[in-house]
UniProtKB/TrEMBL annotation:
It comes from Blastochloris tepida. Its EC number is 2.7.6.5. The keyword GTP-binding applies. Residues 388-449 form the TGS domain. Residues 666-740 form the ACT domain. PANTHER family: BIFUNCTIONAL (P)PPGPP SYNTHASE_HYDROLASE SPOT, GUANOSINE-3',5'-BIS DIPHOSPHATE 3'-PYROPHOSPHOHYDROLASE. GO terms for molecular function: GTP binding; GTP diphosphokinase activity; guanosine-3',5'-bis(diphosphate) 3'-diphosphatase activity; kinase activity. This is GTP pyrophosphokinase rsh.
Amino acid sequence: MMRQYELVERVRRYNPDTDEALLNRAYVYAMRAHGSQKRASGDPYFSHPLEVAAILTDLRLDDATIVAALLHDTIEDTATTRGEIDELFGKEIGALVEGLTKIKKLDLVSRQAAQAENLRKLLLAIAEDVRVLLVKLADRLHNMRTLHYVPEAKRNRISEETLEIYAPLAGRMGMQAIREELEELSFRQLSPEAYRTIVGRLESSRERHIKAIAEIEAQLTTKLADNGITAEVTGREKRPYSIWRKMERKTVGFEQLSDLIGFRVIVGELAECYRTLGIVHTTWPMVPGRFKDYISTPKQNGYRSLHTTVVGPGRQRVELQIRTRGMQDVAEYGIAAHALYKDGANAYELLTSDSQAYGWLRRTIELLAEGDSPEEFLEHTKLELFHDQVFCFTPKGRLIALPRRATPIDFAYAVHTDIGDTAVGCKIDGKISPLVSELQNGSEVEIITSEGATPPAAWESVVITGKARAAIRRATRAAIRAQYAGLGRKLVERAFERAGKPYEEPRVVASLHRLARTSLEDALAAVGRGELRANDVIKAVFPEWTEDVSVPQQQRRQPEPITEAGWFALARARSVKFKVPGHGAVSPAGPAIPIRGINGDLPVRFAPDGGAVPGDRIVGILTPGEGITIYPIQSPALKAFDDEPERWLDVRWDVDGQERHRFPARLRLTSLNEPGSLAQIAQVIGERDGNIDNVRMSRRSPDFTEVTIDIEVFDLKHLNAIIADLRAKSVVSSVERYNG
């Protein structure tokens, strides 16, 4: 275990002005706090925070970050409090340690929800101070290095979390060295057989690779020197996990991979990067489509480099990365490279101001933290972290970086949420294209918008970015909520009218505390969903008012005259629509209440055991959390709701005669038990353009069979014609419509 003076010396190597007293005090405090605690390996627990601090000294981080690493488990795993940390080490270090502390008490059902809440807390802490992230990544790296000591049951879960969240997060911060090691350790645990196979293949070809690397290094160095460029050329085999991902992505075997070694060319100045590229391309043939310029268009994590692939010596493909020393520091250490000590510079200020990656992370966290459920937050975080990039342009030349496989919808939301919400079409490189097209590098995308448009809920399954998915969900929920509130407003207004009381919104707002609601829209939406009775709103405003329950139930639910109608996307995506003129008692003549739902999210359905068809006198029953069920007025099932008049909605058809829709009905037949009888029944229904949805048969006697048929018809007239034709058949003894 590293001694106290050794830690101080590691920091002094890159920071001669380090606060030795602070480091010594933190070392002693953490060692005493963890006391006799042991790790799964049997080592003293304090060895873990000490190793985390050592990893961070390799990144040349400031004193506060090293101290936070030493103390990062004290609040979570010992009796230490945040107040003690603040008092002994200052509030800056206290905030860092608090940000690294998991939420201890989570009243959540699923482990995924708990994981998501802890991740949300961590990311919000990172948004305040990115050094929290650096300590967390070092913490996870040491835990993965010692994973073999952890019980077998936990290893896969820890490795999956590392591969899905922490390795991509390190990559997004540009910390490639840590990312690659996290990926490698996770891959070895999750796919041991694949890992061993690839490692074995690499070992068997290592001698050949070493020879090729030496030859290419020598040729490249000489060629560049002949052109006046002093360069550091290094080659290496690709890592097993990188090879595995390429095999999966391209669906190829190991033998089919031709670029298992890569080279890095480090030059002195930016201009020499492009000169080197020209020399390479004039010396060896370039592989088409394999050149990328991340210097002129850096990645969001700040990574800058030129990438190309050429057919080098021995006709083998060679991948080359060309960059300056400064670019190399960022490529290896990412955001941590901004903490490298500069003359008089403050490491924290460099981290938070110089890093493009940190700016991206803060914007992403702000978007992710906008009220999603824990599971959605976790899903969106993974979406944001896990994709390679494609670069597109707005018509004005603004560069938009998106994940690969992104669509113009993702592009629209990346430009601005309002653009995404009102998008109705797009042009890609000047051509009208579908909004679900896959965007390519360099495309110019123009989004066509329409004022008042809203995003379809189906877009959620098409988009790639977490920002777009979250925005679509919010827009859909807001629209549904607004429609429930609209329905609730009409129901409340009618309830006040029936009660003979004036409906005045200021008085309702003043009474919301009696309804346990925080806003008028909340209360109205609750009424629309059936969670709150309209009469309860009256009682909240007029406590002295009492419901009149003396009116006979048959009078209370007398419906309006029927017209033919429709609004609601109902059964089987058919556009069935209703209008609701009143609620509860007899409705005066007047306009109908619109209660339109969005993609079925405000559900309206037909009653089981018979349904309803245009021409029936109908009533709607409001069920909290489920929506509205439409019954024909003659349905015996309505007796179950006699004592709940507040759930009754008088509804009427409003079907557009130009667009015909089918509706469910049920028939009960008694037929002769003879060959071909069912065929004759089906023939009658088919000839009348009815659609049989289901048939059930039961034998009641040797001579007769009872048949229940669920059919779909256009209206009551159509249904009665089918019934009349069936009665005329000799094989049919009787036929009646069934309404439950």
